Amino acid sequence: MTSTLCNVLILCTHNSARSVLAEGMLNHWARRLGREVRGFSAGSAPSGRLNRFALEVLQAAGVDTAGYRSKSWDEFSAPDAPPLSIVITVCDSAAAEQCPVFFGGTGQPVKVHWGYPDPSDAEGGDEGKRRAFELTRQAIGYRMLQLVQLPLSTMSQADLQQALGEIARS
Hints:
The chain is α/β, with parallel strands linked by helices. It has one domain: Rossmann fold (3-Layer(aba) Sandwich). It is 39% helix and 12% strand. The chain has five helices and four strands. It has helices spanning 18-33, 52-60, 92-96, 125-148, 157-169, and strands at residues 6-11, 37-42, 86-89, 110-113. It has a four-stranded parallel beta sheet with strand order 2-1-3-4. Helix 3 (92-96) links the parallel strand 3 and strand 4. It is globular and about 45 Å long. The mean pLDDT is 90.
């Protein structure tokens, strides 16, 4: 990677839960560890709202969610969009969709799928959903911590692809 800032786009169909958890945890770890990584989230069919449980568990973990919103992935294929280094899908339906073309600082970003079950589908009422969201936040947070600890500024795209694949298997 040639740029010092690594922009990461996390995709999920509705951009209301898993992708928001991932954006929050990635930015949280990057800030805490002083890493030049910035996370964004978007969806192919954004719901226009963020899941209240996603915001609740992020805030309980000390993540600043000010300014978060549900948005379309089209924003990231516009000419003024930040150059992307990595695109991560976190839900199976988004992984199967035909993504728009995203450009990084040196061409196409590295793409990887890190799937998680939808915590919105959890049983047990609000407490069951809250528990599912917290467990999903922890799982996503662990992978995002591994990502920000990579030597991103010195990795080739092939090495980055391999490292992201290894994180997916962890």
